[in-house]
Amino acid sequence: MGWLVAERLPPTYESQTTLLVGPVSAGRDTLEAAGSQARHYAGVAETAVIVDRAAADLGLTPSAVRRKVEVTSSDVTRLVDIRARDGNADRAAALANAIAQALVAYSRPPGIAASPEGQLDVLERAAPSATPFGPSPELIIAVAALAGLAAALGLAALVDSLNTAIRNEEDLAAAAPMAFLGSVDGARLSTFGREAAVDSDPDSDTAAGYRLLAAKIELSNGGRPLRSIVLLDAQGGQSSISLAENLAGALAEGGARVSVIDNAQRGGSAKLFSRKPRTAERSEPDGALEAGRIVLDRIEPQGSRMTIVRPRDTSQPLELKQVREVLQRVLDDADVVLLTVPPMDRSPNSLVWSRAADATILVTERDHTKREQIPVALESLRVAGANVIGTVLCKNRIW
After folding, report:
1. Which of 11, 171, 204, 225 could anchor a disulfide with 132, C-beta 3.0 to 4.6 Å?
2. Res 275 pLDDT > 60
3. pLDDT for the residue 270
4. Angle at 53 between CA 51 and CA 59, to 5 degrees
5. Residues 354, 387: Cα–Cα separation, whole Å
């Protein structure tokens, strides 16, 4: 843009004529009077008496001459400077000289002898300038580039201020004034049969993050074990299923028997593992578990140290008593149960599960979960009587 402006901007040339008022040397009184006379001549140079005469000599209109000419004076140096600017270098010089010539003629009226302090002489005539007046194209381009950069930075700052997504641990801590349990990397498990990070890459930072999260959860209840934990996605989130699988692997690594109840209404756990329910160790028909009127399928992925339990109908409204029966039934075969539930805006059953479980963890996603969604979710959980022990930040959306 700066280059286009520089290319299209017409050149302007400036020329200057300098006149001296009074004698070169004289007494103090004469020189001071000449200084005052210099201011008088500068004022006269811009009046119609002078401008009209110069315009007539050059074939221009008086208004055009006024736009192109500037006259200044100094009562100390007694100099009167006449500057003219025009797109044509020769015309700029001619303008300055024409004004000077008309002003000199004005200072010497016929038949009247000029006093020493009123004497006006041309000290230096204007000559056509070889270079345009004003900023160079290079400077225009540089200024335009800086202006563009400043505009881009301003736009970026504006967009950033309008973005309310959680970007880091500090944003999450500010939005949720409660325990921050940790952040985990996005170990994506969309490939069927892929193992948890603690199994597939036990020495990785990702595996270490899940182990640290598991340790914090185990110690969060003052030494009393938490046997049932809800992993609740903030509105629009979808990371709780993979988080549960990885967290289950970290808990099972310490010897715990872990089951995951998948209530996410997406068939999420079934998509993670291309496995079919095995025959249950108990005598329920077709390998299913029954808890009151709720029937649950059991899935034990090969190579995994956990069991997945999935209700056959996750859409029916649930009562607190039913949910507690399901938890007790699953806990008969497990030390710890992790529950994945849909965000509260998708199913009110999520609040029922959170109320029945020992603890609830709010799962957020970097650059996706909105800060304003978190207080709303926490308030709903508080009203439901859920025991929210903290938040987790998924650095990448995991599913």
Report:
1. 11
2. no
3. 44
4. 95
5. 8
Q: Identify the residue whose tokens are 């140290």.
A: 305
d(CA 196, CA 210): 10
**For range 150-179, the mean pLDDT:** 75
Q: Please state the pTM of the whole predicted model.
A: 0.57
In the numeric block, which tokens belong to residue 318?
């649930």
Q: Are 95 and 69 in contact (CB under 8 A)?
A: yes
Kindly state the average pLDDT of the residues 15-39. 91
Q: Catalogue all structural domains in the chain, each as residue range(s) with its CATH number.
A: 2-124 (no CATH), 165-394 (3.40.50.300)
Q: How many residues does the chain have?
A: 399
What is the pLDDT at residue 9?
58
Sign of the torsion formed by the C-alpha atoms of 48, 49, 52 and 54: negative
Instruction: Return the structure tokens found at 182.
Output: 């940790």
**CB burial string 138-164: b at 16+ within 10 A, e below:** eebbeebeeeeeeeeeeeeeeeeeeee
In sequence order, what E strands does the chain have? 13-21, 69-73, 79-86, 120-124, 180-184, 228-233, 258-262, 288-291, 294-299, 306-311, 336-341, 359-365, 388-394
